[in-house]
Amino acid sequence: MAESAAVRALRTMDLIPYVLENPSCSIKTLAKRFSTTEKQIERDLELIFMCGLPGYTPYELIDIVLEDGVVSVIDPQVLNRPRRFSKTELVVIVLGLKILSEIKLERSDLREKIDYLVAKVSHLKNDEILINDSQLISSEFVETINKAIGNRQILRIGYISVTKDQSTERDVVPLTLYYSNGSLYMNAFDVEKKAERVFRVDAITKCETGTFLEFEVNQSHLPEIIIELEVQDWLRFFVERNMSIIRSVKHSNQGLLVEVAVSNIDWLEKSILSHIPGIKIKAPQDFAVRVRENARNILALYGSSAN
Q1: How many CB atoms sit inside 10 A of residue 42's CB?
Q2: How does 141-154 read in b/e, with b if 16+ C-beta sit within 10 Å?
Q3: For 170-224, what is each residue's pLDDT tens digit?
Q4: Long-range contacts of the stretch 8-14 (C-beta < 8 A, 24+)
Q5: Dmax over Cα atoms in the chain, in whole Å?
Q6: 38 — phi, psi (to 5°)?
Q7: DSSP codes of every residue in 109-131
Q8: Beta bridge partners of 169
Q9: Mean pLDDT of all residues in the chain?
Q10: Where are the beta strands (DSSP E) in 49-165?
Q11: Could you give the CA distance from residue 17 to residue 73 in angstroms, rounded to a whole number?
Q12: How many CB atoms lie within 10 A of CB 214?
């Protein structure tokens, strides 16, 4: 897949300070360091030859030398230091490190390095706190979940469903923990339903370790199905609650055009039916027909019970 212009521009801005810090880098070394091809690095360097400050005379252009496959920077202009991470990038890094720090590591040297990095990137140059502990995604159950993943143990969890507004208890086999769109999620195998489910960690109210797993969990995931929905503005909370499955969100005159990727289509159908008429299925048509027919059957049941 062809890379975007933004990806190439960011790599190009990173190349100059990297070469300054590592003089006489070869094209091969740069290609390996930036996870691209040698040919692409050569194209990037050709682009850099034509970049510089406004005025664009030879005095304002970036000056680099490429000789015998070795790159040297003569005049970096303003790219003499690595670009700063954006605030969003730093938040993601801190969150990832925080999750790692909550795992009980046997090697104390790794824990010390993680703690050092958390402290390093948690503060801006002017000592303004970028993110504090109360903002970090943390849960008293993260350590228990991680242990269960490593030990292949069943967990008995209490879970508050944000869509049904009810609390249930489930036996699950945790498979992975991942961070997505501001929330920490646990992907787990539901023992009773015999299917994979996704749980928001901050909605877990109880977490107790159970027996060790005596069967193999088939992680050959069902193929994801792409569903296009039109969500009315007053149902924005539906989008916010389900960010883990949402691929894209676009604004329209009718509300939000949302693309979701799901393997458990039955769950999505129930969720759509519970939010009628605020959600309309745009594609695929066979799924739209299925949900429409089920909605009519439900209404028919209500009509018959009234009579």
Answers
A1: 16
A2: bbebbbebbeeebb
A3: 999 988 877 665 667 888 888 887 777 888 888 899 999 888 776 666 554 556 7
A4: 8/44, 8/47, 10/83, 11/36, 11/44, 12/44, 12/47, 12/48, 12/51, 13/79, 13/83, 14/82, 14/83
A5: 89
A6: -65, -35
A7: HHHHHHHHHHHHHTB-TT--BS-
A8: 158
A9: 76
A10: 63-67, 70-75, 153-161
A11: 9
A12: 7
Task: Determine if the peptide bond prior to 284 is cis (ω within 30°).
Answer: yes
Check if the beta carbon of residue 202 is closer than 8 Å to that of residue 183: yes
How far is it, in rounded angstroms, from Cα 26 to Cα 28? 5
Helices within 123-279 (DSSP H only): 142-151, 236-241, 265-273
**Do the bridges between strand 153-161 and strand 204-212 make them parallel or antiparallel, or are there none, so unpaired?**
antiparallel
Residue type, 244: S
**C-alpha–C-alpha distance, residues 281 and 289, integer Å:** 9
Domains in the chain with CATH codes: 5-75 (1.10.10.10), 142-212 (2.30.30), 225-306 (3.30.70)
Query: For the CA atoms of 141, 143, 146, 148, what is the dihedral angle to 10 degrees?
Result: -70
Q: Could you tell me which residues are beta bridge partners of residue 250?
A: 257
**Runs of H (alpha helix) within 140-264:** 142-151, 236-241
